[in-house]
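FORM 12-B: Structure-to-Sequence Request
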């Protein structure tokens, strides 16, 4: 009986400490008035998801449900330019912002996700590998004309995913510079110059050397790995994204966002205190 009481007391103490810590982290977050911004990453959209497509593809209906759920629950889509201005202290953000990004430049972005984003008044960014524009890889890629149409709508922004879509961390200085800047020139020549230049590493493969080099080349934001969330204090050369997979619902995405927000807030609290 005495042993049981000691165990119960220990559990009670742990729970009290956990509640105090949670309260203080929430209070810390409010006091610092920081908005946390999840950046979602998508690739391809298809109604027939084969085994080959499964790692990078969701159905258009899933995407529609996800964006509808987010916007119906107070989340507001913003652009990467708005995120950049927020970090620079030049712009305020809504309380629950989120960013939609899509990698590679699949035709399905033009056919499916672009109309859905317009439907829910939500902007999105597509990172294109410029050498693949208009080609057929294992599935069609959209053309420059379709990219121009999407950008003209005001809902889509095209950004840099390299020219060749290879591993950037394995390239020499000259190779990396050419791969990134050739792609940037093609985007600017076909669609107009970008006020905020953003680069997403294919496969998230990068290192400190590549990030420093791209900063020197004038790239304002770099998308690197996964499982992170942006904030006012983020290193813009090392932003993480949250991946969205087949069979995920809007609620699943919100749960994933809230977990990342909690982790981020606790990390900041622990580091400062």
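FORM 12-B RESPONSE
SEQUENCE OUT:
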């Amino acid at each position: 009986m005495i042993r049981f009481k000691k165990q119960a007391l220990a559990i009670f103490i742990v729970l009290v400490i956990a509640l105090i810590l949670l309260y203080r982290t929430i209070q810390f977050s409010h006091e610092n008035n920081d908005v946390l911004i999840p950046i979602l990453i998508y690739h391809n959209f298809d109604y027939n998801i084969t085994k080959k497509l499964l790692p990078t593809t969701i159905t258009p209906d899933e995407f529609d449900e996800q964006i509808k759920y987010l916007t119906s629950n107070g989340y507001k889509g913003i652009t990467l330019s708005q995120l950049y201005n927020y970090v620079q202290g030049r712009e305020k953000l809504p309380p629950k912002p989120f960013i939609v990004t899509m990698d590679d430049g699949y035709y399905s972005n033009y056919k499916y996700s672009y109309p859905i984003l317009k439907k829910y008044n939500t902007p999105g960014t597509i990172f294109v590998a410029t050498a693949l524009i208009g080609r057929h890889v294992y599935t069609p890629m959209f053309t420059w004309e379709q990219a121009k149409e999407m950008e003209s709508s005001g809902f889509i922004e095209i950004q840099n995913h390299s020219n060749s879509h290879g591993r950037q961390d394995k390239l020499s200085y000259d190779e990396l510079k050419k791969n990134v800047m050739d792609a940037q020139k093609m985007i600017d020549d076909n669609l107009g110059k970008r006020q905020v230049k953003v680069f997403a590493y294919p496969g998230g493969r990068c290192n400190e050397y590549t990030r420093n080099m791209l900063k020197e080349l004038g790239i304002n934001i770099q998308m690197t790995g996964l499982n992170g969330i942006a904030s006012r204090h983020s290193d813009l050369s090392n932003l993480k994204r949250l991946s969205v997979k087949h069979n995920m619902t809007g609620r699943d995405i919100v749960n994933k966002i809230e977990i990342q927000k909690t982790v981020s807030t606790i990390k900041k609290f622990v580091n400062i205190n």
